[in-house]
């Protein structure tokens, strides 16, 4: 049995050659088709050099597993989510490593209806089946689709692929399709774009997959005479990532967007990660807006359109979100962090929207999936309808509930460190929450501490009620305990 080590709790991620190869991709595709007994699967890939080779090998495996394959080409993860639901197929797979280092790649998998596949819902069963395939048979089947010998590891890393698309097309069960127009039309339904006032947006695709999607949105707006101007930064899709791996969550990756906002006097800046399932916003002053406060803005936007709706949020920081939801007549519901948990809870509660401080935003009418395009559209609409700049929309909320942002610390023993912190504060706590990690409330301030699933890291978030010095004091106090 060949061990496959790139399966994680919620997706597939691995180092190229060491963990993820064309052979592994073939195995995953075949196992996916056989384990789920799929008839039709939609596939797509981000801009990384190895994404097309992996997608074609994956497709060969799907075909051998008995499935028909619909290939939507270069796409973001949310385009796979949309296509899977829109086309009514049995599953979807996006080849992407999102914001991981350049020597990595991976896959995100969904079932019919774009229901996520995680370790609790079949992902490890796919892995176990993939490990059973005989290596000689795998090689023989791949050669059948290659039209030549298999490429070397060096050529694979440069984007060469063993599986030839012409060979896949000859099976008549592999088709190239496009859902771009339907996807853009669906996005447009989240806002009243005909009432948008003139707005200028800096958009930074980070040389990732967001660029082509933005071009399609821009074309739609032009046809509808919507007065939106895009200022494009690092727009061209380029698997070499000449401006660095697109990950705006890192402070060092924000300057290009912020500088462009100021230089062009834009109303807002938007930056995406590689597969654009997350977007990060900058106000008109070039200031980065923490994802936490965007959750509150989007909750407000949805409750203005659907009174009494349920809103899901994660337990790391939530006082701001809870107050906004309650004030606007909604039902606030706390859920464990992570896309599989959020999506499951949204389905259970029929929630219109779910948000995480990490910039993942989920939408009921988007198959309960996360999108990096819908959030900025809704915020642009809020700016237009309110007549207020983004800085003003979030300034009062930041003052009302200042937060530390997530602080990650590498520790020798995460469990013991958290136990030490809990013992220090438990007698003072007015409320202890165990939805995800440990949350403790102390009247005017609170914190959440949780450990990583994959590394010896603990993650701290602190917030207060209108008291920035207190928030900073307690953050320093907690960090001293953690690092002692």
Short description:
This protein has helices spanning 22-36, 51-64, 77-86, 123-130, 135-146, 153-157, 165-170, 180-188, 210-223, 255-264, 291-305, 319-327, 339-349, 374-386, 390-400, 414-425, 468-483; strands at 12-15, 40-45, 68-74, 91-95, 104-111, 174-176, 199-204, 228-233, 268-272, 279-282, 288-289, 310-313, 331-334, 353-355, 361-363, 369-370, 407-410, 431-433, 438-441, 445-451, 457-464. The chain has 484 residues and is α/β, with parallel strands linked by helices. Helix 1 (22-36) runs parallel beside helix 2, helix 1 packs across helix 4 (123-130) and helix 11 (291-305) crosses helix 14.
Structure commentary:
- With 484 residues, the chain is an alpha/beta fold.
- Helix content is 39%, strand content 20%.
- The chain has 17 helices and 21 strands.
- The strands form 4 sheets. Strands 1-5-4-2-3-6 form a 6-stranded mixed sheet, with helices on both faces. Strands 8-7-9-10-11 form a 5-stranded mixed sheet, with helices on both faces.
- The longest helix has 16 residues.
- The chain is globular.
Reconstruct the topology from this structure.
Elements lengths: L11 E4 L6 H15 L3 E6 L5 H14 L3 E7 L2 H10 L4 E5 L8 E8 L11 H8 L4 H12 L6 H5 L7 H6 L3 E3 L3 H9 L10 E6 L5 H14 L4 E6 L21 H10 L3 E5 L6 E4 L5 E2 L1 H15 L4 E4 L5 H9 L3 E4 L4 H11 L3 E3 L5 E3 L5 E2 L3 H13 L3 H11 L6 E4 L3 H12 L5 E3 L4 E4 L3 E7 L5 E8 L3 H16 L1
Parallel strand pairs: 2-3, 2-4, 3-6, 7-8, 7-9, 12-13, 12-14
Antiparallel strand pairs: 1-5, 4-5, 9-10, 10-11, 14-15, 15-16, 17-21, 18-19, 19-20, 20-21
Helix pairs in contact: 1-2, 1-4, 8-9, 11-12, 11-14
């Amino acid at each position: 049995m060949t061990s496959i080590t790139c399966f994680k709790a919620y997706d597939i991620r691995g180092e190229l050659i060491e963990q993820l190869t064309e052979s592994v991709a073939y195995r995953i595709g075949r196992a996916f088709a056989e384990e789920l007994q799929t008839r039709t699967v939609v596939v797509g890939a981000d801009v990384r050099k190895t994404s097309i080779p992996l997608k074609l090998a994956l497709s060969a495996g799907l075909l051998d597993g008995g499935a028909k394959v619909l290939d939507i080409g270069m796409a973001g993860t949310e385009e796979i989510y949309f296509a899977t639901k829109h086309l009514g197929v049995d599953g979807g797979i996006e080849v992407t490593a999102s914001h991981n280092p350049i020597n990595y790649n991976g896959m995100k998998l969904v079932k019919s209806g774009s229901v996520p596949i995680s370790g609790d819902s079949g992902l490890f069963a796919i892995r176990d089946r993939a490990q059973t395939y005989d290596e000689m048979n795998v090689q023989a089947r791949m050669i059948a689709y290659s039209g030549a010998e298999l490429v070397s590891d060096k050529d694979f890393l440069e984007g060469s692929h063993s599986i030839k698309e012409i060979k896949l097309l000859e099976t008549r069960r592999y088709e190239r399709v496009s859902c771009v127009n339907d996807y853009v039309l669906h996005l447009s339904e989240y806002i009243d774009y005909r009432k948008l006032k003139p707005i200028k947006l800096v958009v930074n695709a980070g040389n990732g997959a967001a660029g082509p999607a933005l071009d399609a949105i821009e074309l739609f707006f032009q046809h509808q005479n919507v007065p939106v101007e895009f200022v494009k930064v690092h727009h061209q899709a380029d698997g070499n990532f000449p401006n660095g791996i697109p990950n705006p969550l890192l402070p060092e990756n924000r300057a290009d967007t912020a500088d462009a906002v100021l230089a062009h006097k834009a109303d807002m800046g938007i930056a995406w990660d590689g597969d654009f399932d997350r977007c990060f916003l900058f106000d008109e002053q070039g200031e980065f807006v923490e994802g936490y406060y965007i959750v509150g803005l989007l909750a407000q936007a949805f409750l203005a359109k659907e009174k009494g709706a349920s809103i899901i949020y994660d337990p790391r920081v939530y006082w701001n979100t809870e107050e906004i939801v309650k004030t606007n007549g909604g039902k606030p519901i706390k859920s464990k962090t992570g896309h599989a948990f959020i999506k499951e809870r949204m389905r259970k509660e029929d929630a219109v929207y779910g948000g995480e401080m990490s910039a993942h935003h989920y939408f009921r009418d988007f198959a309960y999936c996360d999108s990096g395009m819908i959030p900025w559209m809704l915020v642009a609409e809020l700016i237009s309808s309110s007549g207020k700049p983004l800085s003003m929309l979030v300034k009062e909320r930041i003052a009302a509930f200042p937060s530390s942002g997530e602080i990650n610390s590498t520790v020798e023993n995460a469990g013991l460190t958290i136990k030490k912190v809990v013992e220090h504060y438990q007698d003072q706590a007015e409320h202890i929450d165990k939805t995800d990690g440990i949350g403790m409330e102390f009247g005017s301030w609170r914190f959440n501490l949780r450990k990583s699933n994959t590394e010896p890291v603990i993650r701290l978030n602190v917030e207060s009620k209108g008291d920035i010095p207190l928030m900073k004091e307690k953050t320093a106090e907690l960090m001293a305990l953690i690092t002692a």
